Amino acid sequence: MQLTVDLGERSYPIYIGSGLLSKSGLIRQHVRGKQVMIVTNE
To answer: How many separate domains does the chain show?
Structure first.
């Protein structure tokens, strides 16, 4: 599931589901800087 935090030009997606860490392309397409935040219970 994907939710979008709507902040105009600073909007970003939140992905919810299992197995997302194994889909590196999913995360990589949104990384524009030097930092990302990943929250997991794995």
So the answer is: 1
